[in-house]
Amino acid sequence: MGEVLVSMTGIEKGFPGVQALSDCRFELLSGEVHALMGENGAGKSTLMKVLTGVYQKDAGSILYKGQPIELLNPKAAQDIGIGMIHQELNLSHDLTVAQNIFMGREPKKGFGLFLDEKELHRRVLQLFEMMSLDMDPSTVVSDLTVAKQQMVEIAKALSFNSEVLVMDEPTAALSEIEIEDLFRIIRQLRSNGVGIVYISHRMDEIKLITDRITVMRDGRYIDTALTSEVTNQQIISMMVGRQIYDISRPENARNDRETVLEVIGLNRGRTLHNINFTLKKGEILGVAGLVGAGRTELARAIFGADKIQSGEIRIHNRKVSIKEPHDAVRQGIGYLSEDRKRFGCVVDLDVKSNVVIASYRKFKFAGFIHSSKIRRTTQEIVDKLKVKTPHVDQEVKFLSGGNQQKVVIGKWLTRDCDILIFDEPTRGIDVGAKSEIYKLLNDLTEQGKSIIMISSELPEILRMSHRIIVMCEGRITGELDYQEATQEKIMHLATARM
To answer: Closest by alpha carbon to 145, among 193, 102, 91?
Structure first.
């Protein structure tokens, strides 16, 4: 580690009704990977958005290589060598991979009048070669999985040759192999003197890749320590400042309970092949598999977001026709997407509108909307889920990622669905918020709700599931009872091509 690249002191930042940062400080050295940790809503992303020109600070100072700077926009930050990979993907879905990576910086030919496609693709492939990434630069981004879109974001940030690189939950949607590739890139950048701010809630990653840790809580600086000198428990204590919910594996299976959902011979193109499984009342059915295994495609097919080609869906032993999400909701199915920003909530609407958006009929009487009932119901959801918001009229875009996730969960709780599909419910969420969501899932099953939980985190799958089905290349390759399931058995089935 070398000279001080970034020094932030006394940083203040407020939004309507929210003081996001209060007297915050942060330091980054050249050639170090510095973890920035804290619960969702702690101010981590906000502080880094101030550093990268996305937000303007209200007070405080920022020194870059010893010189004071005022960054009015992200381009100004990029121009001096400060880049950021945001937690929420920031890509143009109708453009190609190559166009996204070099947007506004495309190579030209013919006196600068025409796009040089050949040179554009050459530059992108050069980046991909460094990242050991096999991807066609001409692929339209909307055709990529969330994991692949995340890798495009990383490639875009690397294309600026940044001296400071902020990574906000970069591995949230990556497989183990992709994470290894990312870490290789990070180590290479570190050896070249690049300073990296690494925001993550995954303790194993933090211990493996970072040099120092800074913890924030409630928009304030708590402490900085060498990674090698601080324990996981000490980090958690600094982050949450409270007792967290201790989850344990389910005490008993639910095999003797009523079958609420049965999927028979479901097929969809190349993504799903002869899918068969059941879901019991009051059960959490875990769905495990590597990125690209077809887990999200399965959830979307059941919910009617993607059309199935053949197969049957039965609810309470009755065949149902689900051709679109509206049909699924009418049948008592709720779906929490892995991409909450695109499919889960309307970020420009307020909390109460998002909470009741799937249940407006409940709040109608004689053609009129009961505003007071909506407000009261939303406040109950906010209190139950511990959503950090100043009031129910706050626009969702001003909430942290974890609190946005809770609002989406609140939407389906308000709808009172009997079957809930949670696709990566704790993706990008800190240990404290995870604890609260785990408790909520267990409470829901005790109330008789049935849950399909898709997760890339094997410890989460193992601890929360009564049964686990494992997928590989669009097929179910095995089913495990919670008593027999291990990480090794799951990984064996997740790589078992049929």
So the answer is: 91
Pairwise CA distance, residues 63 & 103, whole Å: 29
d(CA 163, CA 180): 22
Q: Tell me the average pLDDT across 320-346.
A: 85
pLDDT(428) > 70: no
Assign 3-class secondary structure to the chain: CCCEEEEEEEEEEEECCEEEEEEEEEEEECCCEEEEECCCCCCHHHHHHHHCCCCCCCEEEEEECCEECCCCCHHHHHHHCEEEECCCCCCCCCCEHHHHHCCCCCCEECCCCEECHHHHHHHHHHHHHHHCCCCCCCCEHHHCCHHHHHHHHHHHHHCCCCCEEEEECCCCCCCHHHHHHHHHHHHHHHHCCCEEEEECCCHHHHHHHCCEEEEEECCEEEEEEEHHHCCHHHHHHHHHCCCCCCCCCCCCCCCCCCEEEEEEEEEECCCEEEEEEEEECCCEEEEEECCCCCHHHHHHHHHCCCCCCEEEEEECCEEECCCCHHHHHHCCEEEECCCHHHHHCCCCCEHHHHHHCCCHHHHEECCEECHHHHHHHHHHHHHHHCCCCCCCCCEHHHCCHHHHHHHHHHHHHHHCCCEEEEECCCCCCCHHHHHHHHHHHHHHHHCCCEEEEECCCHHHHHHHCCEEEEEECCEEEEEEECCCCCHHHHHHHHCCCC
Q: How far apart are CA 491 and CA 489, in angstroms?
A: 5
- pTM of the complete model: 0.58
Residue-level pLDDT at 58: 95
Length of the chain: 498
Query: Does residue 23 surpass a pLDDT of 60?
Result: yes
286 contact partners, CB below 8 Å, separation of at least 6: 453, 454, 455, 461, 462, 464, 465, 467, 468, 469
Strand order across the beta sheet in which 333-336 lies: 333-336, 419-423, 450-454, 284-289, 467-472, 475-481
Identify the bridge partners of residue 263 per DSSP, sorted by sequence position. Answer: 277, 313
Output the pLDDT for position 173.
Answer: 67
Assess contact for 34 and 195: CB atoms under 8 A. yes
| Residue-wise pLDDT tens digits, 79-137 | 898 988 876 677 899 999 999 999 888 888 877 677 888 899 999 998 888 777 788 99
Mean pLDDT of all residues in 221-232: 93
pLDDT digit string, tens, across residues 242-282 = 555 555 566 666 677 899 999 999 999 889 999 999 999 99
